[in-house]
Design goal:
25 strands
């Protein structure tokens, strides 16, 4: 595990376990849900504070189609889903630290295709930077194969949820991801899913993509305000029933729509996210 810091900001990253963030603190306050232990992350990457989704986000409920070929990709995290592959390769493989200093860390992952996994060669890079205001992450993928390949990116941070949590996001539509027997559904927001005016998270749970957002999201808690900024076109909101966390995930492809974005040989695709905390 590697720690970077800047003034009151302290971040811990585990390159060997999916290059996951395991702690992000501002002073004594956890900005992301803290990880109980490295062994917990090793057993289940969903125990991390934040992990990368590369080269796709969401579940692959159908074979991957590229050109005239179809590729069946097996489950990559059976403890999460024993039927479908989910969230790509990055979060379930070790990364290699390449640049480290007091406030920044860069790690790389090189994917070699084998039968049953993502069938194209690519490299991924994740750069973390601790700032006096918070955390900046850049996640990129480069096509290292001889053909154009389908790609998508996502970052999956877990935020603390309390009775005082309020969310503001300027999105006017939502997307329900497809399942193996239901198509995806795009529709206007309803009172429980409309965060254009500051709103609470629904008690009934939510697992939808927010459409039409401007790249900024604001989380209010009793201690202060956390602000997200990203160049991603979509923001996925996951808030399960009865849990003390929720996820705001910037993504470059809609869940269930993987394959629409093709990356040419040697081309890069990059996603950025900053998380800044302002105490009251």
């Amino acid at each position: 595990m590697i720690e970077i810091s800047a003034q009151d900001t302290r971040i811990q990253i585990a390159p060997e376990f999916g290059c996951a963030v395991t702690q992000f603190q501002f002073g004594e306050r956890n900005i992301l849900r803290g990880t109980s232990s490295l062994s917990a992350v090793a057993n289940d990457p969903r125990e991390a504070a934040c992990f990368p989704c590369v080269p796709w986000f969401g579940r692959l409920t159908e074979p991957l189609v590229s050109g005239t070929k179809q590729y069946a990709i097996k489950s990559n995290l059976p403890v999460c889903d024993d039927q479908f592959a989910i969230h790509g390769d990055g979060w379930v493989n070790a990364w290699v630290p390449s640049v480290v200093d007091e406030s920044a860390l860069t790690c790389t992952y090189l994917h070699q295709p084998t039968r049953g996994n993502y069938p194209f060669k690519y490299s991924a890079q994740q750069r973390f930077c601790a700032t006096p205001a918070g955390l900046e992450i850049s996640l990129g993928v480069r096509n290292e194969s001889m053909n154009a390949i389908p790609v998508g990116l996502g970052l999956h941070p877990f935020f603390l949820r309390t009775a005082t949590t309020r969310l503001t996001v300027s999105a006017d539509e939502i997307w329900t991801p497809p399942s193996h027997d239901q198509p995806g559904d795009q529709r206007p927001t309803e009172p429980s899913t409309d965060f254009r005016q500051t709103n609470v998270l629904p008690d009934s749970g939510i697992d939808h993509t927010l459409l039409g957002w401007d790249g900024i999201a604001r989380i209010e808690n009793s201690g202060g305000v956390t602000t997200l900024r990203s160049d991603a076109p979509y923001l996925h909101l996951y808030a399960p029933i009865g849990q003390g966390y929720f996820c705001l995930e910037p993504i470059t492809q809609l869940p269930g729509k993987f394959g629409n974005r093709l990356l040419n040989t040697g081309e890069d695709h990059v996603l950025t996210l900053s998380i800044e905390y302002t105490p009251n």
